[in-house]
Amino acid sequence: MINIKANVFHYNLMLQGHGSEKELALPPLSFEQVCPAWARKLRSGLDQQDLRTLAHDSKYCIVGEAWGYNGRHAGYYIAPLIPLIGCWSCVKLGREMGKIAKLHGQSCPSYLHPKINHFLEHWNKKHQDITKKVMHKDNRIWTKTRKYPHE
């Protein structure tokens, strides 16, 4: 019993130095870890289908890939559910990336980078655990040969 109390005491001391348990969690994920398919596409160049997807399909866009291609971030397309199961910030960032794709077309990758960085910052603060769940659920292996439903 004394050993358990000592461990709890040390754990609490450790948390005081870091602010919260979440800050202790993990190093930030990279874009390649959160959205490997879109990272690859942006490196190799976007085709017209990719631009249409970014602009019009929230389930398969950059934000959609991070959420596991399930539409949950958008409350499964039922707006009142977004605050309960999804994320307004993710929805807004996805829309902003879609507008950039519409406006800049083939040259949009250079315009997307600041927005992607903002998304990654948000993702690592609020949703980093989702990446692990998605990886575990689908038994995903982050390789260059990975195939996605929209490819």
Can I get a quick summary?
This protein has helices at 2-18, 21-24, 31-34, 36-44, 48-56, 62-66, 82-85, 88-104, 108-126, 128-138.
Give the class from helix and strand content and strand pairing. mainly alpha
The poorly predicted ranges are: 1-23, 140-151
Biggest beta sheet attributes: none
**Large-scale geometry:** globular
Number of domains: 1
What's the number of helices?
Answer: 10
| Count of strand segments | 0
Radius of gyration, whole Å: 18 Å
Order of helices and strands: HHHHHHHHHH
Description:
This protein has 151 residues and is mainly alpha-helical. It has 10 helices and no strands. It has one domain. The N terminus and C terminus are likely disordered.
Please tag this protein with its features.
10 helices; single chain; disordered C terminus
Blueprint of the fold:
Elements: H1 2-18, H2 21-24, H3 31-34, H4 36-44, H5 48-56, H6 62-66, H7 82-85, H8 88-104, H9 108-126, H10 128-138
